[in-house]
Amino acid sequence: MANENAELDIITLEFDDDSKIDCEILGIFDYEGAEYIALLPLDDSEDVYIYGYKEGEDSFELLDIEDDALFEKVAAELEAILNEAE
What is the value of pTM for the model shown? Predict the structure, then answer.
């Protein structure tokens, strides 16, 4: 998974209800030819947010994973990557 040797990278997510949360970027990983990003909220919860990831020239975009079956597969891939890193 990319980003393993970087210092703590933080991004702020802003939700539809205008709430915001700072998240550590756990890493960017590939699953079946698409890139995904794993984010760890810095709010002491045990949640991990997973989004599709699309990098542009000067920016990047987080994409909601709307297909539940795909989300489960991507989450399982992330879990396998994290278990392998231990």
Answer: 0.84
Cβ-based neighbours of 52, under 8 Å, separated by 6 or more: 34, 35, 36, 37, 62, 63, 64, 65
Instruction: Report the distance separating Cα 83 and Cα 79, nearest Å.
Output: 6
Residues contacting residue 22 through CB under 8 Å, at least 6 positions apart: 10, 11, 12, 13, 41, 42, 43
Q: Torsion angle, CA of 18/72/54/61, rounded to 10 degrees?
A: 0
Q: What is the pLDDT of residues 6-48, one digit of tens each?
A: 467 999 999 899 999 999 999 999 999 999 999 999 988 889 9
Give yes or no for a contact between 1 and 85, defined as CB atoms under 8 angstroms apart. yes
